[in-house]
Amino acid sequence: MREVVRERYAEAARAAASPGGGCCSSVSLVDASGTEVFGNAVYAGAEVDGAGGALGASLGCGVPTAVADLHAGEIVLDLGAGAGADVLISAQRVGPTGKAYGLDMTDEMLDLARANAAQAGAGNVEFLKGYIEDVPLPDDAVDVVISNCVINLATDKLVVFREAARVLRAGGRFAVSDVIADDGMDDATRADMAAWTGCIAGALTQREFEDGLRAAGFEDIEIRATHRVHEHAASAIIRARLAAA
């Protein structure tokens, strides 16, 4: 499953990096009616200072930086950073005394993100290769964890939640955009590989997301739907806070 996801998003990165490139031949950005529910369109009206050209290669389903409440000097980690748009927005907000990390498993996406950071002149960013189930950072390393439509692609979300809790400092914030499945999502959709790599089939229900975060040590959990992305799923903003020590 991981290799299928990796190749699909590597292809998307190659398309974005090609002359006159855009997103994305391998990842659909529209729903069944043709409405754009993923990608650059979801940032309309949002504050995106610092993102530069990275927005054009976005594959996300929301704007986690809109609810992360970032402050100068904070350290941010973006799980599944892709082309780097949310990392660059975060870097702008935390300023030179802060730092934004972007984690991705795909070499092509990392190359694209680093090129976008260089073009934006962002000196307080660092892109790391690795898996969101095994973050290459020490315990208590960051103040905020963000992510944009990536956790649903992991085969074991509970491990992802535990890793987010591990790298967060006590009281740290979790603010992600992700797809939330309806309780009645049918088995055919769940078994569809294209729906999985398209961010639908692997999504948790709201109850499953809440239970997973709570088991990992998070509290003050809030899940708010933003727009429908599929007959059986919606994009949502998920916020939580790691319990104080």
Describe the protein's architecture and organization.
- It is a single chain.
- With 245 residues, the protein is α/β, with parallel strands linked by helices.
- The protein has one domain: 3-Layer(aba) Sandwich (Rossmann fold).
- The protein contains seven helices and eight strands; from the N terminus they run αβαβαββαβααβαββ.
- Strands 1, 2, 3, 4, 5, 6, 7 and 8 form an eight-stranded mixed β-sheet that branches.
- The model has no long low-confidence stretch (mean pLDDT 89).
Short description:
The chain is an alpha/beta fold and about 240 residues long. The chain has helices at about 1-15, 85-95, 105-120, 155-165, 185-190, 195, 205-215; strands at about 75-80, 100-105, 125-130, 140-150, 170-180, 205, 220-230, 235-240. It has one domain (about 1-240): Vaccinia Virus protein VP39 (Rossmann fold).
Topology:
Elements: H1 2-17, E1 75-79, H2 85-94, E2 99-104, H3 107-120, E3 125-129, E4 142-148, H4 157-167, E5 168-181, H5 187-190, H6 193-197, E6 204-205, H7 206-215, E7 218-230, E8 233-242
Helix pairs in contact: 1-3
